[in-house]
Amino acid sequence: MADKPEKFIDENGIRSDGRRANEIRDVKIEVGVLSRADGSCYLEFGKNKVMAAVYGPREVHPRHQQKSNRAIVRYKYNMASFSVEDRKRPGPDRRSIEVSKVSREALEDQIFTEYFPKSAIDVFVEVLRQMQVQGRRPLMRHPLPWQMQESR
Amino acid sequence: MDKHIVVPGDFLSDDVKKAGDGTYVSEGKVYSNLYGLASEKEKIRVVSLSGKYIPQGGDLIVATVSEITFSNWIMDIKSPYEGLLNVSEYPRRIDSSDMVKYLDVGSSVLVMVKNVSRSMKVELTMRNNRLKPITSGRIVQVSAVKVPRMIGRGGSMISMLKKETNCNIAVGQNGVIWITGKDRDMDKAVEAIQIIENEAHINGLTDRISGFLKGDVEKEPETAKPAGSEILDELLD
């Protein structure tokens, strides 16, 4: 981690990365990047880079997880070992398990799972580059730049 | 006609009477159920732009045997659910020990969905003298939501495709398409099908396909129709 700068905002109101106080980080979204996924997206938020993929509804494996009245939603958030400056130990840790759980519960309520009984919807979120101090916001409704600027 | 893209939960109307296919009503307002194109006539309906095949009773589909159990063929129907074809649903009476002789793992069949239970148990049937195993031709897979475009209004697209390519084509509701004909004709048909799949949402599709087919299909003298063609003709009319 780099040392803490003297000031976060200088006398001209410019932040250390050149943005003004009211400016959002640059956002880039590309959809449909993975041909085998049913839905996918590549997202850059400032210097953070994330790849997400959705599969399903599809058959549930292992079978015992299936619910006879609705689809199950499985969400896996993972940070690549090369995503941070100091190599991260690969695999799930306490933080990514929590992020997965919270995100899954947020998504589950947004999906009409009752239309697809006995099936599974899988979501994979892979963090490829992670620059800022981690917040708890892997999910945002309509994370589109103009809308976020309006809400400020 | 004005069409626009909606996602599930998008507000469509205050008038409950306008709720059509692909919509739901909540607290006296109409919302979209699907990701798709919304259009308004007497009713507002949403046509899906993506999604998986969800079987319904009466659907004609192309299925492939994936497993054989004591008295059922378990079939891959390109859906989140698997299809079950019971021995008793085979057109002739066969002993369960002989099942492999009639349909082995990997064979494809034109089948009908007999019934789908609440818990998504999909029962298939071949008990219709027009449903038979597939022994020749090619199978092409397209997205199930493109099937209506493949068939066209009142079967216009599919009948044109069959006429212009001299092939027999069966479009399963699950997006699996069975084509029989001469190799070159089938190449053409497959190409046309791919165009339809990629451009399904663009207006004037039938005309473009018609142009494509008429443009470079050289008519060859009509020869004997391929096996199974009369089955298809009947089925698709």
Written account of the structure:
The complex is a heterodimer of chains A (152) and B (237). Helix content of chain A is 14%, strand content 28%. Chain A has a single domain (27-133, 144-150), classed as Ribosomal Protein S5, domain 2. With 152 residues, chain A is α+β, with helices and mostly antiparallel strands. The longest helix of chain A is centred in the middle third of the chain and has 15 residues, at 94-108. By secondary structure, chain B is an alpha+beta fold. Chain B folds into 3 domains: 3-48, RNA polymerase II/Efflux pump adaptor protein, barrel-sandwich hybrid domain (OB fold (Dihydrolipoamide Acetyltransferase, E2P), Beta Barrel); 60-125, Nucleic acid-binding proteins (OB fold (Dihydrolipoamide Acetyltransferase, E2P), Beta Barrel), CATH 2.40.50; 138-236, K Homology domain, type 1 (Ribosomal Protein S8, Chain: A, domain 1), CATH 3.30.1370.10. Chain B contains 6 helices and 14 strands. Chain B has helices at 99-102, 147-151, 156-165, 183-198, 205-216, 229-236; strands at 3-6, 11-13, 23-26, 29-32, 36-40, 44-48, 60-68, 72-76, 83-86, 108-116, 122-125, 138-141, 168-171, 176-180. In chain B, strands 7-8-9-11-10 form a 5-stranded mixed barrel. In chain B, strands 1-5-6 form a 3-stranded antiparallel β-sheet, with no helix packed on it. In chain B, strand 8 (72-76) and strand 9 form a beta hairpin. The longest helix of chain B is centred in the C-terminal third of the chain and has 16 residues, at 183-198. Chain B starts with a strand and ends with a helix. The model of chain B is unreliable at 217-225 (pLDDT under 50). At the A-B interface, strand 3 of A face loops of B.
